[in-house]
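--- STAGE predict ---
source: upstream dedup step, 1 unique chain passed
mode: sequence only
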Amino acid sequence: MTSAEKIIAALDLQSREEVLEVLDMLPDVRFVKVGMELFYSTGPGLVTMLKDRGLRVFLDLKIHDIPNTAYGAIKSLSKLGCDLLNLHCAGGLEMMKRARDAVVGDTKLIGVTQLTSIDQTVLNEQLGIEGTVEDCVLHYANLAKQAGLHGVVCSPNEVSMIKTAFGPSFLAVTPGVRPHGSHSQDQKRTMTPKEAVQAGSDYLVIGRPILASPDPQQAFNDILREIEVAS
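--- STAGE serialize ---
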């Protein structure tokens, strides 16, 4: 895997036209994320278009439902040929096992542990989950491993812990990656690209620091160089 393939550019956009415009500005991008906002506004045909352009695709829809519904959703979505597809570990072991059984083709299924917007206060006081964020992430990652998932989505802060517990082949896909000088926005558990790679992150999901930059290609190249130095 090249350094460029470690960067998953988050296409947090609303239209096919915006996507094409961004891709024209980012000729070196090799991996992109399609989230709820874009998928719901453009439909599954966008994934096919991105694959036809030779891009790898992370379909970030965070499936979370009863096991039978999750099974059907994952079966339909994995048929699109996306490289990564995710669900919420909070749906439980049975849901994750059923979803894993539903995967079609070479799509790798990964589980969301805790969103990077969740901090200790939110976890304990609003979600009603006892213990630390790290405890919860490790518990959910353990369930994902038991279910046969290929890895998890977590903040870079928890990557080292997950790799130690489950081995280097268990994927750690990390949003919450912010270059120096970038605003964290609604993400609370963050690292720089260099720190994330050094911690063991397999893929860095980065959106606003690239797309909102006056020069997206330069922003991408700066992150790429930082990763290459850290690798």
